[in-house]
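Input (structure):
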């Protein structure tokens, strides 16, 4: 295992992922994908009560970090989680 303290490139990658996850709406998107599995944009927008355009901007950020992937089915963009370790993140309870 490469320690991040000795690997600046890996530190940049981790920082990018943390930045992508650094918005409450993106955490909620990840949580829905963990709990419900594959979802289409309209269903996500409805359940999260946000406009599709706003949701699309946040999904783009998650796609850029390869945390979710989009596929076209029946004329809709469906999103799936690509990083299984995010399951642990949304299940984590803060000891705050």
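Output (sequence):
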């Amino acid at each position: 295992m490469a320690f991040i303290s000795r690997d600046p490139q890996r530190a940049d990658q981790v920082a990018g992922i943390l930045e992508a996850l650094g918005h409450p709406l993106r955490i909620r998107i990840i949580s829905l994908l963990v709990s419900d599995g594959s979802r289409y944009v309209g269903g996500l927008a409805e359940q999260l009560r946000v406009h599709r355009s706003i949701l699309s901007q946040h999904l783009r950020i998650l796609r850029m970090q390869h945390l979710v992937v989009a596929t076209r089915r029946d004329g809709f963009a469906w999103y799936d989680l690509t990083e299984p370790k995010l399951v642990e993140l949304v299940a984590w309870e803060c000891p705050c």
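Notes: The chain has five helices and three strands. The two ends are 29 Å apart (CA to CA).
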